[in-house]
Amino acid sequence: MTDALAGVTLDHGSPVPLYHQAAQALEAAIEDGRLPRGSKLGGEVELATRLGISRPTMRAAMKQLVDKGLLLRRRGIGTMVAPRPVRRAVALTSLYDDLKEAGREPRTRLLSLERVPCPPDVAEHLALETNEPVILFDRLRVAESDPIALMHNVVPADLVEIREKDLERTGLYELFRGGGVAPNVATQRVGARKAGEEEAELLEIEPGDPVLTVTRIAYDTNGRPIEYGSHSYPAESYWFEMMLVDL
Questions:
Q1: Phi-psi category of 176—alpha, beta or left, where left has phi over 0 and alpha has psi -120 to 50?
Q2: C or N: which end of the chain has fewer Cβ atoms within 10 Å?
Q3: Alpha-carbon distance 97 to 102, whole Å?
Q4: Alpha carbons 57 and 175: distance in angstroms, whole number
Q5: CA-to-CA distance for 91 and 183, rounded, in angstroms?
Q6: Helix axis angle, 44-51 relative to 55-67, nearest 10°?
Q7: Inter-residue contact 151 to 95 (CB < 8 Å)
Q8: Calpha distance 153→38 (Å, rounded)
Q9: Domain segments of the chain: what residues?
């Protein structure tokens, strides 16, 4: 940390607030690699002493970078530099595939897997009756050591065989393709909300922190619904990219 801020001196006579100068100094260190993505940041007292400012001023600077998504406050860890966010084009791909494409090694922690009657709030989306069986599963997707997504999925039980070891080794769409099911089109809704207690613990964020939410219904080449997915992501770790056209 000392090396990362070597040579940084704040101008106490400048009209630019000291907290903003401090935030700019930290942001520059992140952007040029002196503070590596995913590294742990020093505490407020240490940083304030190094930059010659008060602790409340340092806290304001760090909050500015948290709000910009450059710093994270992780439960049980402290403040760290945010990993580079996952970039996703608006296309019918799985998060597993997108992480592999980005050169990040995805891992999956299976939280639950069960065969149950289709939940009433999902049955309409999958064109099923509420007594028809589905496979319901929850997963935590991790890239390196960073929790990336909490994923809840429901799939018709007669579609493909889904086993615990399969969900832990690869993505859902790869399982579909291996079982002769071709994902073809999907409807998707993107939103945002505050993280709940259990969700925050799994994603290693604080309760009330913002999460991005994605709800997707995917269809095969015959127009049959094959997946209902409801996923949440730490807001700073994920962003969409799309092209807009003037029609």
A1: alpha
A2: C
A3: 9
A4: 51
A5: 11
A6: 110
A7: yes
A8: 29
A9: 18-81, 86-241
Two tokens at 20?
Answer: 């903003």
Q: Name residues whose C-beta falls within 8 Å of residue 213's C-beta, 6 or more positions apart in sequence.
A: 190, 191, 192, 193, 230, 231, 232, 233
Residue type, 52: G
Residue appearing with tokens 């993107």: 190
Is 14's pLDDT higher than 90? no
Q: How far is CA 58 from CA 22, 27, 38, 73, 172, in A?
A: 7, 13, 20, 15, 44
CATH class, 86-241 region = alpha beta
**18-81 architecture in CATH?**
Orthogonal Bundle (1.10)
Displacement of CA 233 from its chain's centroid (Å): 3
pLDDT of residue 110 exceeding 70: yes
Q: What is the mean pLDDT of residues 55-83?
A: 81
User: What's the burial of 9, exposed, middle or buried (CB within 10 Å: 0-12/13-18/19+)?
Assistant: exposed
Least confident of 110-114, 187-191, 235-239, 240-244: 240-244
